[in-house]
Every structure is written in structure tokens, then in C-alpha cells.
From TrEMBL:
Residues 227-427 form the Histidine kinase domain. It is a multi-pass membrane protein. It comes from Virgisporangium aliadipatigenens. This is histidine kinase. The keyword Transferase applies. SUPFAM superfamilies: ATPase domain of HSP90 chaperone/DNA topoisomerase II/histidine kinase, HAMP domain-like, Homodimeric domain of signal transducing histidine kinase. The lineage of its organism: Bacteria, Bacillati, Actinomycetota, Actinomycetes, Micromonosporales. It holds the Pfam family HATPase_c.
């Protein structure tokens, strides 16, 4: 913007200065020519009395003094053909002036002035003066150069003033840009200083109000999520009591383990809501994918057996390190397997395959033989073609992205749904 303002001012001033200086230089040149011709005419006319009243010798002396004091060569053509003064050719203008006319005429190298002196005994004498082009333009070139220098000086001053003005406009705009970047980075306490430019200050005030509103909404969202998570502890406590009353110790231990896992997840939600972005600083950054996937498939195997679903699990012995925490990876696997159970009928076979990647990372593939995907883009948050919340695949996608990987949602060879999660390796 600063450069554009300077260019715009320079272009505008250049047009104005050219429109002013060029005509002025032409006028000066024209005035200089007219003054030179006028002086030559006056000098020639001043010799008329001398030519009309002097004898030949006196005329020669007078012409010699006149030529010595002027820059224009003066010549007198007498009626008898005698030429007095500076030698000059008998031009057509002189012949025409001998008929009693006085005038000036342009030539290839200047301007010829002829003055007729009538009343002489032998006829009409002609006084000739010549003004060269150099004489007519003397001083005009210097004036044109001076005008050009003045114009360049004014142009430089104008550009400097425009640049200072542009800086005063650009600086607060850049401060607004930095403010927006800080707000986008999560610094909602950032503020822009007053610029004393009403329009810019209005934008800054709007950004300040936006930051306050975002902060208010974030605080309300965190409080609501934390409160909701805290309320869930009551039914969790009831479930723990129900599990303790089961007669089968193994079943009671399994349910108790799931209750503890859910309780840890709720505690993590509360901490994340309270701490905000700083919570990610203490989050796990790596996990053994083989152990996590093996544990979660073991949990879902009980429900698969209950619904008579053939379940194929292929997990390497491990460890298979990936760049995501165990809790997030478990949530990813649970979300994908939960979709299989929620969107396919009982008895539908499915497979879970985990493969290690050379150099770190893994590929997790979950594929079923159900009716296939009901949406073209099941990974969009809140979008589902099967009437669910549409958050499951988004959880898996965010887990893959957090590890530096990707998620692919497509129709498998058997017509069902295949989800491929590429997990990046742990940070070095």
C-alpha cells in the first residue's frame, strides 16, 4: 500500500508538472523569439532617419557604429545598388521591400527583417537585419532546464510527503494485521494501540469486541463442558456400585475397568476445559499402537461374540510406536469400532488390521461387510448419513492428523465400509 500510494502521487504530480512546465517552456521560448525580433525591428527602424538624411560616408560610419553595438547584422541596400554595413545577399525579401513594404520573414536559419525607407532621390532604400535561431532561443533553454529542475524538486518533495503519509496510514493497518494474527494464535488479551484514524480505530474496536466475545464464549463452553462432565460422575458412581454387586468376578472386573477408563476420560475432559490450550503441553505424544489396538479389540470382541459377528484381528506383536497418546488412540479405535456396531446389522463380519511402517508409525484398517457408507464424506464433523451424531469419524480424523497422518473413508471391495488411518511416528 505504501508503494502504491507513492507511485500514485508520483504519477499524478508528473502529469500536473508536465501539463504546467511544457506549456510554460513553450511560452518562454515564444516570448524570447518575439523579444529578439522586436529588438531587431527597433534597431532597423532607428536607422531610417540616418539612411534618409546622411551622405554615403556618414552612412558608412553610422552603420559601422550600429553593427559594433548590436548582435544583429545590419545592412542597407541603397537605390543605386550600393550596399552599406554587413555584407548580405540580395534576397527576395529585400527586393520586395524595395517596393515600399516593411516586414519580417522566416528563413532556414533564422528570421530576416526588412524596413523600407522611402523618399530618397533615387528611390527606396532597404534596411535589412537578421536574427539567427540561436539568438531567438538564447536563454529559453536555460529557463526550460530551470523549470525542469524545479519540477523534479517538487516531484521529489511530493513523493517524500506521500511516503510519510503512507507510513502513517500503513503502520496502524499492520498493527491490526498483527493483532488478528495474535488473536488467531489464541492470545485473546491482545489489543491494538489507538491510531487516531477514525476508520482504523473503528476496525480495531471491532476486533477488540470480537476478542472479548470469543473469550466469553470459550469460558462459557469450558464451564458447560466441565459441568456436564462432572454431572456424569453420579451415574458413574451408580454403575460402579452395580458392578460391585455382580456375582461373576471376571465380569465385575471387566465392567469396573471400563468404568475406570470412562472416569479417566471425564477427568481429562474437565482438565482440558479448565486449562485450555495449555493442557496440550502435558498430553501424551506417543503410544504403542499394538498394545492399544489389541486391548480395545479385546474389549469389543465380547460384544461381537454376543451379536454373532465374525471378527478378524491382525495386530503385530509390537511394540509399534506412533505419534499420538494412548488415550487418543483408544478413542480413535473405539469410535471406528463403535461405528461398525452402530451402522451394520448383527452378524456382519468385520476386520481390524494394524501394520507397522518402516521408520515409525502404523496403518490401521477397519473394514466391514455391511451396506457401505451412507454419506460421500463421513469425515465431516457433525455429518452422518445414518442418523448418528457424525462425530465418530471426525474423532478418528483428528487423531490421525495429530500424529501427522491421514484418514481415508471409502467403500471396501466387499461393498462395506473401509476406514484407513495412517498414524505418524512418535516425535524424535
Amino acid at each position: 500500500m505504501r508503494h502504491r500510494l507513492a507511485v500514485m502521487v508520483a504519477a499524478t504530480m508528473t502529469l500536473v508538472l508536465v501539463a504546467f512546465i511544457v506549456p510554460l517552456a513553450l511560452v518562454v521560448r515564444r516570448v524570447t523569439e518575439m523579444q529578439a525580433v522586436s529588438r531587431a525591428v527597433e534597431e532597423a527602424q532607428s536607422l531610417s532617419v540616418l539612411v534618409a538624411t546622411s551622405d554615403p560616408e556618414t552612412l558608412r560610419l553610422g552603420m559601422a557604429r550600429a553593427n559594433a553595438s548590436t548582435t544583429h547584422p545590419l545592412t542597407v541596400f541603397l537605390p543605386d545598388g550600393t550596399v552599406v554595413g554587413e555584407p548580405a545577399p540580395l534576397s527576395p525579401a529585400v527586393r520586395l521591400a524595395a517596393r515600399g513594404e516593411s516586414f519580417s520573414v522566416a528563413t532556414a536559419s533564422g528570421r530576416e527583417i526588412v524596413v523600407a525607407v522611402q523618399g530618397l532621390p533615387g528611390g527606396t532604400a532597404v534596411i535589412r537585419s537578421f536574427v539567427s535561431d540561436a539568438e531567438m532561443t538564447r536563454g529559453a533553454t536555460r529557463v526550460a532546464v530551470l523549470l525542469t529542475l524545479v519540477g523534479l524538486g517538487l516531484l521529489l518533495i511530493g513523493v517524500l510527503v506521500a511516503d510519510r503519509l503512507a507510513v502513517s496510514l500503513v503502520r496502524p493497518i499492520r498493527q491490526l494485521a498483527r493483532l488478528s494474527h495474535r488473536l488467531a494464535a489464541g492470545d485473546l488479551d491482545a489489543r491494538a494501540p489507538a491510531s487516531h484514524i477514525s476508520e482504523v480505530d473503528a476496525v480495531a474496536l471491532s476486533l477488540h469486541h470480537l476478542a472479548d466475545r470469543i473469550q466469553h464464549l470459550l469460558d462459557a463452553e469450558r464451564e458447560y463442558a466441565a459441568d456436564l462432565s462432572h454431572r456424569l460422575r453420579t451415574p458413574l458412581t451408580a454403575l460402579r456400585l452395580e458392578a460391585a454387586s455382580l456375582r461373576d468376578p471376571d465380569e465385575a472386573a471387566r465392567i469396573e475397568h471400563q468404568i475406570v477408563t470412562l472416569d479417566h476420560a471425564l477427568t481429562r475432559v474437565i482438565e482440558n476445559m479448565r486449562l485450555g490450550d495449555s493442557a496440550t503441553d502435558t498430553a501424551e505424544t506417543s503410544a504403542d499402537a499394538a498394545r492399544v489396538v489389541g486391548t480395545r479389540t479385546g474389549f469389543w470382541a465380547v460384544l461381537a461374540d454376543d451379536q454373532q459377528r465374525p471378527m478378524e484381528v491382525s495386530v503385530p506383536p509390537g511394540p509399534v510406536p506412533v505419534g499420538i497418546g494412548a488415550a487418543d488412540l483408544a478413542a480413535c479405535v473405539d469410535a471406528l469400532l463403535g461405528n461398525v456396531f452402530a451402522h451394520t446389522p448383527d452378524g456382519t463380519p468385520f476386520a481390524v488390521r494394524l501394520e507397522a511402517v518402516d521408520g515409525g508409525g502404523a496403518v490401521l484398517v477397519i473394514e466391514d461387510s455391511g451396506p457401505g457408507p451412507q454419506s460421500d464424506d463421513g469425515t465431516r464433523r457433525g455429518v452422518s448419513g445414518a442418523g448418528s451424531s457424525g462425530l465418530g469419524l471426525d474423532i478418528a480424523r483428528r487423531a490421525a492428523t495429530a500424529s501427522g497422518g491421514t484418514l481415508t473413508f471409502e467403500r471396501g471391495p466387499a461393498g462395506g465400509t473401509r476406514v484407513t488411518v495412517v498414524l505418524g511416528g512418535p516425535p524424535t
